[in-house]
Structures are given as C-alpha cells and as structure tokens.
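ok so I'm stuck.
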Amino acid sequence: MTTPNIFAVREVALATFYDLATNKAKVQLSNLKTSGLENSADTVYAQGGRGNGRVVGFSGNRSGRVTLQDCVFTAEVIAMMTGNEIKTGATNIYQRDVITVSANKASLLHTPVDATSGLISVYKLNSDGTHGEEITFATGTIAAGKYTLTTKQLTFNTGELADGAKVVAYYKAATATTAKTITVSSDKFAGTYRIVLDCLVRNTENQQDYAAQIVIHRAKMEDNWSISMAADGDPSVFDIPMEILKPVDGTEMYTMTIYDENSVA
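replied:
not stuck anymore, here's the structure
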C-alpha cells in the first residue's frame, strides 16, 4: 500500500527508552494514557516605517518537549527520573502492630530486626485508637510499665494488663530479598535517553492503518515530577515530562516515519 499523505492520529504511542551509552533498550511503556510532542521556537522581527510594521522575521531557539502520561507506575522509569539504580535485596521496613494481651503476653506479626534492645516504642492503646501510657523495654526483671521481648513475643508485668487489652507496637522488620528500593538523593538527577514512539495513523483516503515511528535522539527527563495519592476519584497517573535536546553531531532533533508494517523487509 502507498503510504498516506493525509492521515489521522488517535491511538496512544508505545514508548521505548534506550540508554545513550550502551544503545540497549531499558524499558517500554505499553500502558500510556497520552503521549505528545510540543514544538516551539522564538521569532523576532525587524520593524520600522510608518506604523512600525513588521518587515522581516528571524526564528531561533528551536525546542521541543515530550510529555507522556502513564496509567500505571513503572519502577524502572521512576528510578530513571531520580538518577539512581533500583536496589534489589532485603531491607528494614517500619511496622505498626496492634496486638492483644493474653496471660500477660502478646505476639508481634513479624520478627523485629533487633530484639535485644527492644522495639522503637510500645503503648497501651486507648479505646479511641490513640496512644495511652508508654510501656518501656526491660533488660531484666519486669516491673510496672515494662516489657521484655523474646523473638516476637512481648511479656508484660504480671496482672498489669487484662486479657483482651490492646497494645500498639512500633518496630522494624526485614523484607525478603525480592524487595526493590528506589532512592531520591540530593546529588543525582534524571537522565537523558533516546525515545522511540510507535503509534498508528489512519489514511483518510482508504481508511487503512499504517505504522508511524517517532525517534527522539536525545530527551532529557525533567527533575520536577510528582506522585499523587488520593482516597477517591480515578487511579493516580504518572506524568513523565522530557525536554528534547539537540544532537552533538547534527541538527536533527527527531524524525517521524510513516510506513506499511506488512512491507518491512
């Protein structure tokens, strides 16, 4: 089929990120809600004569932006926007357990990282869910307002807490080795990548679909981004703003190729 001269675009693109140093693909985003390109330039005019009309214009400061909006969050992309690699492995996470006393004892849901020095903090729990009196760690004899800790089990002063009483405990526990940690640090920033956008266009003459591929040679991820969390409404989306940079060895900022997928060699 002859590639179209006039076409319509409706489908969102697939976005693939390539590492500029290795030329290897890093990640593809297949769940985008929107994908767009913005082109801009500045124009200044020589003006004069009666009425100070514009005589000739000079354009410059060519720039472009890529804006992607994903309906899901991809850990690899978030890491790319922080400038840090994802760390995979066990790490310590904060826990909050509301536990029930029975026979002067109560058991945590998880094993504390350091059981020898006690938990971060332990409180009697008021009926409205707020903290009551603090119960502190004891290394020896359990006195009033004290507890001891053996693995996951807390033991309280005999008769001080009735059966069924609620206690809230704060501590740290270790994750499995499959945990992934993304770090935002003060000395690392978002990187620059080659972006390939694959989408479909429709020929207005014969209503046939063709492939379109936009290759952005250098796109700098912006460092201003946010993650929104809300209790209602639609699920949160992730905006990925990028600025198109000029190549070091030419002037071609990006290309758009329309082609017939069935005729690719």
